[in-house]
Design brief:
The chain is α+β, with helices and mostly antiparallel strands and 243 residues long. The protein is 45% helix and 21% strand. It contains 6 helices and 11 strands. α1 crosses α5, α3 runs antiparallel to α4 and α4 packs across α5.
């Protein structure tokens, strides 16, 4: 489950890269009328009108739920869905243990609904003109991720999970670096192609040699003796060939 969760974090980060993300948030409007307590959203993208909730997860040490607890959980989830609908937010339920292709199809449908709600809603014309293209871009990225996973779902989920760890490592590096440090400039223009045995430099992991290029992924043995595998289309901008 750890790999699947990290893979989904990477998938969502890439699909919604043009939108602000809120983690573990309880909006003022998401209050359970039965208990008067706020409910939680695992991921919330206000400009997109999309929220995500991870389901099927069991907390460490949590035993089997009683029938009453199961009923309470179901009612709470139904309330969450209804409150989101009333506030023009499409709630996407993601089960990391379920088929990711099927769930990506559902996410694409929710993005279509979000576009329709935005177009017919009360937001200003300026906001609609700004966010409608971004929602279209997000649907395109869903299709790209789906194509990637369709090649070899299990392997590519592992690659995406690794990409999430790289993303987190990059965030830590940015937070701990000083302003005086030289950061590598972002590469622009045509992306390079790579081959087995080629030496490269990764933005975060430094220099290494490519050990395998196969089926949309690249494996690199870094000079620190650590081998990592990345999705080709996700890592190209972070790699530079070494002559």
């Amino acid at each position: 489950m750890y790999i699947e969760m990290n893979a989904w974090r990477e998938i969502l980060a890439r699909i919604f890269e043009q939108f602000k993300e809120q983690d573990n948030v309880s909006p003022a409007w998401l209050i359970n009328p039965s208990t008067k307590r706020r409910l939680k959203l695992d991921k919330y993208y206000p400009e997109a009108g999309i929220a995500c909730r991870f389901v099927g997860l069991t907390a460490k040490g949590q035993g089997r739920q009683s029938d009453w607890e199961v009923l309470e959980t179901e009612q709470r989830e139904q309330t969450r869905v209804e409150l989101c609908r009333q506030n023009d937010v499409q709630l996407v339920l993601i089960d990391p243990a379920d088929d990711p292709l099927k769930q990506l199809d559902n996410l694409s449908q929710q993005l279509v609904r979000a576009s329709r709600v935005l177009a017919q809603g009360n937001r200003s014309v300026k906001e609609k003109q700004r966010w409608m293209p971004f929602l279209s871009d997000a649907r395109d990225r869903v299709a790209k991720v789906r194509t990637l996973l369709n090649k070899n779902t299990e392997q590519m989920m592992g690659v995406l999970a690794e990409s999430w760890r790289d993303r987190e490592a990059g965030r830590v590096a940015e937070l701990t670096s000083t302003p005086a440090e030289n950061k590598p400039a972002k590469r622009r223009g045509k992306l390079p192609t790579f081959a087995n045995g080629q030496r490269v430099c990764h933005d975060h992991f430094g220099e290494g040699v490519i050990t395998k290029v196969d089926n949309g992924s690249i494996s690199i043995l870094f000079d620190a003796s650590q081998e990592r595998t990345f999705a080709t289309e996700l890592v190209q901008e972070k790699l530079a060939p070494i002559s």
